[in-house]
Structures are given as structure tokens and as C-alpha cells.
Amino acid sequence: MNISVNYSEDYQGLVSAELHEKLQAIHEGIQTKTSTGSDFLGWVNWPSSLTPEFLQDIKVTADRIRSNSEVLVVIGIGGSYLGSKAVLEALSTPFQKDDHLEVIFAGQLVSGSYLKQLIAYLDSKEVTLNVISKSGTTTEPAIAFRFLRQYMEERYGEESASRIIVTTDEEKGALLSLAKEKGYKRYVVPGDIGGRYSVFTAVGLLPIAAAGHDIEQLIAGAKKAEEELQVFDIKSNAAVKYAVIRKHLYDKGYPVEIMATFDEKLTYVQEWWKQLFGESEGKEGKGIFPASVLYSTDLHSLGQYIQDGKRMLFETFLMVEKASDDLTVFEAEDNRDELNYLSGLTLHDFNKACHEATASAHLAGGVPQITLMMEQLDEKHIGHLLYFYMMACAYSAYLLDINPFDQPGVEDYKRNIFKILKKPGY
Ligand SMILES: O=P(O)(O)OC[C@H]1O[C@](O)(CO)[C@@H](O)[C@@H]1O
């Protein structure tokens, strides 16, 4: 199990002796947790340090939620929601009302109509809330929690305390004090793991387990990636390879990376990836802007720009080798749609052909190509993929001499909004 990274040009030639030395230093800095931002390198060995007891505790809570609730509302924004959303979407079965608990997200945006309609929807369901905020002070989820907590207290009375689970910092934040005062069940976001690197902590694991997915397999995949990526080899280390190619393209004048997929289930992996790379790299006037497209949909929308517009883009395809389910085009007697030439072709194979066609067209149009291939969409491979991205992101930021683990720029809008709304102290 590995993520294969293919580049449209020669990769080996990109690694000069000087770059090799820099990569090795970055690698050692990450593995020994001594590089810039080392206080936030807790995610590096997190999968291998998880105990069966911790996973069991999450599973017990998830089972309790599943036994007494039909809906789990997960309140969070950024890294406090995108990881679980990405995994849930990737493992979802569209159009099927199964026995899985329904997970609904709130607090990722501020909308009166969304919250009102959510509360109206919840009225006929049994509900648990999981409010997630590392800082415990982020305004958008805090607003959602204010309304939903009031709803839970009015509806469930004293029982509401056992239907609210808080995932936050161990030592500080308004959410922590409230959780202690009310006696809510608590999970910790480790101090040395930032929001966008937290999918394998309780932040991601509880909603994923509550939805009925196998968190042990997810962690097994992440652990495998952790082991594989510990080996510094520029030929076989997929995270190094991806980071090197990205940096090369950035230096050659391609500041925008489009992640393309043919699978709608990966849309939120793309969204998670955008936060991961955007917040980690986009600093000090540097960084690759992460964007995303879904094909074939966007071939009939943004495809024109990608092929022919301003040349600043490179494209990274995230492909899945094996389809989880498929259809084969059949021979039609009348062939009135003139599609019999496709008979015998699976729809997954159509997408593979479409990938080949798109990649060569875009390459000819001046858009360099990377293809990341994963084997299949299940818990294990998704765990592997997400860990791979986190490691590649750390290399990428360090190659730009940027600390991957802070996000000072996000504070600017927050300060402004507090001033505009006259928050005490601003
Ligand atoms: O978990 P918190 O502290 O509410 O933060 C949510 C998100 O807000 C940010 O701090 C800023 O966007 C992200 O880094 C983080 O994932």
C-alpha cells in the first residue's frame, strides 16, 4: 500500500545535491521534532502512539451515540470539521438511507436560515452534539453552539448534559470551562497537534466512529504511512517526491495547484487538502494557492480556462485505482445514441481514459501534471492518504522556509470583526 506519485517530466533530475541535503535536514527535523514549529509536530508519531484503550473509549462513546441518537450534530470549523467531513464523504453511500447515524455539520458557516432549519429538522430526531474547537474561542462555531445548546437544554432538560460532548484543549478556552461546569464528556485536542493535522485525534475519530466507520482501519492506514514515510529515500518517499515536484513547479512560475478528481466522494478530501496546504504554506508572500476541480463536471466549466487561460496552473490528479462499485456499458439493440462503441467499458475505465485524455490535453496546453494514485476508497487507504498529505505539506512548507504550523494571517479578519462588533477589549 503506497501512494504513487507520477510527474509528467523527469523527477530524478530535479533533486540536486544541495536540494538533497536540504530535504534530508528537513526530514531529520521533522522526525526528531526539532524543526521550526516543533511544538506542533505531535501528529508525526500520533498514529503509532495511539493506544487500544483510547480507540476503545472512542468506540464506546460512538456506540452510545448510535444507541440513543439518530443525528449527531458536529459543530466546528476549519480543521475542527474538515477531516471528519472528508472521511465521511469519501466513505459515503449516496442516496441510501442506511442504519448509519446521520452526521450533520454546523458552525462551519454563520447562517440563521441554516440553523433554524437544522433545529426544525432535529425536532423529530434523537440528537447528540459534538462541539469541537481546539481554542475553544472560535466565534463561528461558538455562535452555533449557543443556539444548539439552548435547544438541547430546552428539549432534554438535565439529560442534555449527557448528550453534549466537547472536544477541546486540555487546559484553556471558554469551551473547556463551560464543559467542566456542565459536566460534559470531554475529549482532548492535543496541545502539540494543530487543527488541520488533527483528523486522527478525537476531533476526527469520534464523528467517524459514530457514523459507523472502522477507525482502527483508518489508524492502521495512517500508521502504515507513518512507517513508510520515516524512510528518507528521494525515490520512494512519496511525500518527499510530491513536495519536490510542487516546489520545482512553483519556482518555474506555477503558483497555483489544482487538485483534480473524478470521484465526487473526494470533494471534501479536496476541501481538507485546501485548508491543510493553504494555511500551512500561504505566508510571507509565498506559497502555492490550492484549488480544486471535479471531473468530468468541471471539464465542462473550468476546463476551458485550464486548457487555454493564463498559464500559472499545474494540475495534480488524485486517482483511485479500484472502483468500489461500477457499471458496464451494454450493447443497445437500436444504438440510437451511437454509444455501442463503448459497450463492455466500465464507467471507471471511462474515467481512466478521460484522465489520460485530459492530462495529455492540459499538458499540451502548458499545464504540468502530477498524478497521485491510491488503491481504493476504504478506511485504511484514506488514513494512508491523509497522513501522506500532512507529511508532504510539512516538507512543502519547509522547502519554502515557512513554518507549516501557524496561521497568523487568519487573525487579521478576526481582529477586524471583533472591532466592528465591539467585542470588549477590541
Ligand atoms: O478548533 P478551533 O480553535 O475552533 O479553530 C478552527 C480553525 O480556525 C483556525 O484557527 C483558523 O482558520 C484553523 O487553523 C482551525 O482549524
Automatic annotation (TrEMBL):
It is found in: Cytoplasm. GO terms for molecular function: glucose-6-phosphate isomerase activity. It is an enzyme of class 5 (isomerase). Its EC number is 5.3.1.9. It catalyses: alpha-D-glucose 6-phosphate = beta-D-fructose 6-phosphate. The active site is at 279 (proton donor), 414. Gene3D superfamilies: Glucose-6-phosphate isomerase like protein, domain 1. Pathway: Carbohydrate degradation; glycolysis; D-glyceraldehyde 3-phosphate and glycerone phosphate from D-glucose: step 2/4; Carbohydrate biosynthesis; gluconeogenesis. Its main location: cytoplasm. It holds the Pfam family PGI. InterPro entries: G6P_Isomerase, Phosphoglucose_isomerase_CS, SIS_dom_sf, SIS_PGI_1, SIS_PGI_2. Keywords: Cytoplasm, Gluconeogenesis, Glycolysis, Isomerase. It comes from the Bacteria. Belongs to the GPI family. Catalyzes the reversible isomerization of glucose-6-phosphate to fructose-6-phosphate. This is Glucose-6-phosphate isomerase.
